[in-house]
Amino acid sequence: MEHDVLWLVALNTLLHEVGLPLPVTPTLLVAGASAMSGSVHPLAVVAMVIVATLAGNSLWFAAGRRYGSSILTFLCRLSLSADSCVTRAERSFRRWGGSSIVVGRFIPGASMLTPPLAGALGMSWSRFIALSAAGAALWGLIVVGAGMLLHQELDAAIRVITL
Fold this sequence. Notes:
Layout: H1 2-17, H2 25-36, H3 42-67, H4 69-77, H5 82-96, H6 99-103, H7 110-120, H8 125-149, H9 151-161
Helix pairs in contact: 1-3, 2-8, 2-9, 3-7, 3-8, 4-5, 4-7
């Protein structure tokens, strides 16, 4: 059971990070709730979030390094405000620097733009990996922790849904 949960978390997180519109938060909440029953260790779940996030974000970072702002233009075409997307993202990144990678995990859309932007602006691989891992760890700890706190409510909701 534990291996199934961990693989599901890893796959869902990786697919989310490479840009597929799959929600990962519900998976992590349920994994956190599962941790309360002892079927999975919560730190193992967070570790899988970190590894999968680093894998997905590294692809976008490398694309930003290779293709520069053109990869951002491509990503921004998918947004609702494509005209100002690249300019706003660059301005925010220059203002907040590496902390935008950590905090960007909590801002919809920002988590998709910060890795290629960091690559395009010449951030070092080691700094990017450290900041991306820190952001993924913080985000994973908070969401898995929320699942643990809300485990009774989540279990009840799952029982209702599966009836």
